[in-house]
Specification:
about 130 residues, alpha+beta, Ribosomal Protein S8, Chain: A, domain 1, Dna Ligase, domain 1, 5-stranded antiparallel beta sheet, 3-stranded antiparallel beta sheet, 3 helices, 8 strands
Length: about 130
């Protein structure tokens, strides 16, 4: 089956694993998903991630280790896909919005790779807003 929106699939798998209080979730790997996981780790939303490469599976699997608070509450309160295949959302470096008044993170696909909204604003580069995490 062909997947039309792999980023949305990534976010949905993480959201479902958090709601079920799983420690890890496995996602079909790609360079974009690995970079998205890297940003989530740098921002403190997940514990860790690693790419598992099988000999017979060329794509590999991205294993994401989820993070919970001291009272077993979710660190990630929400994940939202902004730019979708049917409606792309592009902004300039000065127009990148803040998520939840600065408490969340935008992930922006730029000519410099995937960046957070804060990094993109600082570098004054625009691009496609992929998702919001808070």
């Amino acid at each position: 089956m062909t997947m039309t929106d792999p980023i949305s699939d990534f976010l949905t798998r993480v959201r479902n694993a958090l709601n079920a209080h799983h420690e890890v979730t496995d996602i079909p790997s790609s360079k974009l998903k690995v970079e998205l996981a890297r940003i989530l780790k740098e921002e403190g939303y997940i514990d860790n991630f690693k790419v598992i490469v099988d000999d017979d599976n060329k794509q590999g699997t991205l294993r994401v280790y989820l993070k919970y608070g001291p009272e077993d509450e979710n660190v990630i309160n929400g994940l939202k896909r902004v730019s979708k295949p049917g409606r792309r959302v592009y902004v300039s470096g000065k127009e990148i919005p803040k998520v939840r008044g600065g408490y969340g993170v935008n992930v922006v696909s730029t000519s410099h790779g995937l960046l957070t909204g804060k990094e993109a604003r600082h570098m004054n580069v625009g691009g496609e807003i992929l998702c919001e995490i808070w």
